[in-house]
Specification:
The protein is 24% helix and 30% strand. The protein is an alpha+beta fold. Strands 1-2-3-5-4 form a 5-stranded mixed β-sheet. A hairpin with a 4-residue loop joins β2 and β3.
């Protein structure tokens, strides 16, 4: 997606001590971006941010359309299966919000506990 403008914000230190969770989040983000690339305005901008506090880790994906013609496409990207995987495997919560030309998807989950079994 060379025409799209991307911004990425990641903390200098990530508290997750669970490589399995990290791998799942990166795999979901990769699939999400592939789904976004189909049929969307390639002049749009995408902001990706990881954040955390004491009890929650978050992945925010923001999509800013350049015109209202492209706005309707953003929330309709085929990611329902990804949301189901996320909510099932990480016991996470997914929210979406559209304001004006911007759509924000937020995936929240609790940090991995040392007792979680990983493959």
């Amino acid at each position: 997606m060379p025409q799209m403008q991307f911004s990425v914000s990641v903390p200098q230190r990530w508290g997750s001590n669970c490589p399995y969770y990290n791998w799942l989040i990166l795999a979901l983000l990769d699939e999400w971006l592939m789904a976004m690339s189909v049929g969307l305005d390639m002049t749009a901008s995408v902001a990706i941010a990881l954040a955390e506090d004491a009890s929650t880790q978050r992945l925010n994906i923001g999509f800013l359309a350049q015109s209202s013609v492209n706005l309707a496409s953003a929330p309709e990207i085929p990611v329902h299966h990804l949301i189901t995987l996320f909510e099932t495997l990480l016991v996470g919560q997914f929210t979406t919000e559209t304001v004006g030309l911007q759509t924000m998807w937020q995936l929240c989950w609790r940090p991995c506990s040392p007792t979680v079994l990983t493959p």
